[in-house]
Structure formats: structure tokens, C-alpha cells
Amino acid sequence: MQNNILITGGKGKTGRLISELLTQNGIAHRIGTRTPESGSEIAFDWMRPDLAEAAFSGIRSLYIVAPTNTSDHGSVVPPLLEIALEKGVQRFVLLSASSLASGAPMMGKIHAWLEANTPEWTVLRPTWFMQNFYEQRHLVTINEENAIYSATGDGKVGFIDALDIARAAVSALTSNRTINKDFILTGPETLSYGDIAAALSKALGRKISHRNLTTSELASRLQQNGLDETYSKILSAMDNDIASGTEERITDGVKALTGVNPCSLDIFIQRECHRWKV
């Protein structure tokens, strides 16, 4: 099947990898970005409906990464998806989250809208990314304090490699079949933050500790590091959910979409070891 694909969030964590995979397979696509810099990129912003018609022109399959500068996704995103339908987009692939079922806040609202209004849709609901440990706040504390801070206790997560999410997205965008289903995506094993610290210790040759905090302590720490109060509380509450066991599950979602098993943490760390101080 020939595809004309638009990747929103095309320079983000999954979008960049999707673009690389499509390029490797010789599949033409566009990258939607607020700051286009090349011929394969086009101006796109969920907060700028005036850009939508040009961005969606000639597109059949759309990868949706919701905007990060608002949590009101149910109001912001569907009006632009209406424009996409009018311009002939047939297939919609949404990046959501394992914790957000159809109808839930944020991406859950987009999920419900896709189910009700689009001919072909897939919702990818990954759990927490392995990449988080070499990006954002964890990278700093691992390198500078030999520590990972969380409020997850002994709770476990089926951490997933973003590359597996990208492979699942490419499959959904280019498949010859209509999927119309959501997939919870996990890695091959459930791991606590203590397990992550132990794996990093072994690979890096230095002791990395997991320092467990209360949710209020974590929220305060995040605010001290520059996050606003509301977002700090949301992240702390997510850690509390992990502590209570809500993410302790393994699914076959990656294999169902790609035909291959997801990457393990040990393989991921071997591949990305250069990201941390050794």
C-alpha cells in the first residue's frame, strides 16, 4: 500500500525514530513541526488551525502526538482532526499512554473521538519509556549524584524502548489491514526503579542507588528543579500509581503489531551506555 504519511511531533522522542524507520524503508512522509527546516518538513501546530489544511493536503495516514503545552486535548485536537478528514486523511495513529483508556482525560479524549469519527484508527498506549533514564531529570541525578529519585517504592513497570513504539507506529501507519484497536505497549519484563538502578550499576561500573521519596517530597523536589506546582503534583501522583501496582503488567502489544519481541532493559543499556558517565 502506498502511503502519504504526516508525522506530528516529528522531531520528538517517537516521531524522530518513526521518520528514520520510514526513510530506511523508502516510504515517503512529511514531518509536521512548528519550525520546518527542510523540504520534508511542513509547518504544523495543534494551536494553529490555520496551518492544518496545508499540512494535511495529500496525506492518507496521520501520526498524532498531542500538544504538550495544554492538557485540554479533547478541545484542542479534534477540530484539527475534522480538517484532516475533510482533506482526505483515512488512517489515524495516536500516541497515548497505558494509563489512559478511551474517554479518560488528555489523550483519552482523542482516543474516544477517533473511535467515534474515523474510518481507520490505532491507539498506541505505551508504558514508561526506557529513554527517560538518559533524558530529563534522571540523567542529571544519575551522572551527578549516582542516584535515581522517585516515589514508586517497590512498584514495577514494564518499561519500553521508544524504538519499539516507533516500530509499532510504522506498522500501524503502513499496514494493509484496518486495525481499529488500541494496544498497551510494554517491554518484556516488569522492573522496579531499584532494578533499574542495579542494572545501571552493573553496566556503568559504579553504584547507582534508588532513593525513594514520598509523593509530597518528590513534588517539592520537582518544583525546586523548575517544574510548576501542578505538573509536579501530576508526576508525583503517577509515581504513586506505580507504587500501587497499576503498571505491573506485560502485554504482547509490540509483537502483535511488529511481529518481534520488544527490547529488554539490558540490551537497551548496552546500546545506549554512552549516554551516561562511566
Automatic annotation (TrEMBL):
Q: Which CDD domains match?
A: TMR_SDR_a (cd05269)
Q: Which UniProt keywords apply?
A: Alkaloid metabolism, Oxidoreductase
| MF GO annotations | oxidoreductase activity
Tell me yes or no: is Cell division among this UniProt entry's keywords. Answer: no
Pathway per its UniProt entry is: Alkaloid biosynthesis; ergot alkaloid biosynthesis
Q: Which domain of life is it from?
A: Bacteria
- Cited Gene3D superfamilies: NAD(P)-binding Rossmann-like Domain (3.40.50.720), UDP-galactose 4-epimerase, domain 1 (3.90.25.10)
Q: Where is the NmrA-like domain?
A: 2-232
Taken from the record, one Pfam family name reads NmrA
InterPro entries reported for this sequence: Ergot_Alk_Oxidoreductase (IPR051604), Ergot_alkaloid_biosynthesis (IPR019901), NAD(P)-bd_dom_sf (IPR036291), NmrA-like (IPR008030)
Determine if Oxidoreductase is one of this entry's keywords: yes
Sorted alphabetically, the Gene Ontology BP terms of this entry are: alkaloid metabolic process
Q: Which NCBIfam families match?
A: ergot_EASG
Q: Which family does it belong to?
A: Belongs to the fgaFS/easG family.
What protein name applies here?
Answer: Ergot alkaloid biosynthesis protein, AFUA_2G17970 family
- What organism does the record attribute this protein to? Photorhabdus aegyptia
